Amino acid sequence: MITTIGFLVQVRKIEFDYRNGNEKRPEHWGELKKEWAACKYGKLQSPIDLSDDRATKVIPSLEDLQISYKPCNATMKNEGHYIAMEWKGDAGSVKINGTDYFLKQCHWHSPSEHSINGIRSLPFCISAPLS
């Protein structure tokens, strides 16, 4: 008896990269696609170097940070260069210094896209764009 099993593997083209020595690293993002042209001139977009001379303490005490998460359905997606979790509905919020930021999505990269004082040594990072 011969059994044949077929499956489809979706291969995504790597559009950009974070590794040194790669032509798709951050210094070249503005040249990779015309809609990414702003990356060539931007100064404060990902990846971010969290350097001692530019870091600012935003939350002076934990009293200024209020977390209010709620159970909510979510979808996890593999976007190729990161894994994303997108919540459907009201997943709650974080209040920082009196301003509410509502949780809609978070994603993580491995290795980390960000660095600390110029060193990108973290195994991964999690980003949560809040609205």
Automatic annotation (TrEMBL):
GO process terms (BP): one-carbon metabolic process
UniProt subcellular location: Plastid, Chloroplast stroma
Domain Alpha-carbonic anhydrase: 14-131
SMART domains: Carb_anhydrase (SM01057)
MF terms in GO: carbonate dehydratase activity; zinc ion binding
Main subcellular location of this protein, as a coarse class: plastid
Reactions it catalyzes: hydrogencarbonate + H(+) = CO2 + H2O
Entry-linked InterPro entries: Alpha_CA_prokaryot-like, CA_dom, CA_dom_sf, Carbonic_anhydrase_a-class
Signal peptide from the UniProt entry: none
GO cellular component labels: chloroplast stroma
Entry's family note: Belongs to the alpha-class carbonic anhydrase family.
Role noted for this protein: Reversible hydration of carbon dioxide.
Name of this protein: Alpha carbonic anhydrase 4-like
Species name: Prunus yedoensis var. nudiflora
